[in-house]
Write a structure and sequence with these properties.
This protein is of the alpha+beta class. About 30% of the residues lie in helices and about 25% in strands. The protein has one domain (about 30-215): Chloramphenicol Acetyltransferase. α3 (about 50-60) crosses α5 (about 195-210). Keywords: Transferase.
Length: about 220
Amino acid sequence: MIFHPIDMDTWSRKPYFDHYLNNVRCTFSMTSNIDITRLLPELKRNGYKLYPALIHMLTTIMNRHTEFRMGYDTDGYVGYWESMFPSYTIFHEDDKTFSSIWTAHHEDFHVFHERYLADLAVFGEIKQFTPKSNEPPYTFPISCVPWVSFTGFNLNIYNEGTYLSPVFTIGKYFRQADSILLPLAVQMLHAVCDGYHASLLVQEMQTLADAVATWLPCSK
């Protein structure tokens, strides 16, 4: 995967990056409800699972925007990846532990869904934290807390506050009046993303959920 180093001398965001990384280092989190009223029944009707659909939707949006694909190369230079793959948690029901595995992204949801199922079949029962080896550096984390419909979720990453990628947590969907809502929390480093970017991500997630018929292939 291609990594594009950023020319810090010409980067328009450099003053913000320097301030929020060196002077007032901070992350921020935001939780929003995504309306999946259209999405959920369409997935079920066509034989697809919700979790990989949400993973695919998040990865699609991540790969649209440079701000979400920020990272460091092996020499410590700041830049962005050409595209990214999702790294996500899976739950082991018997002992209540979890593993984190990654799946190569594909723009076609059906192809990605098949890759997800294949990875789950191979690695889903292995009781290790990271059972699938050779995770590339261009992944971003997604986790799921399907037992509770939270209204806020704050994840504290103690790595000197330099982790650039967004971190996502998905909650349990619930019914409200005639709608089905799903909590989505995103944690971002303020040095590379602002409230605008978090809002854009949520808005685009909602657009994908509403327009499910445009990207969901019919099952055969």
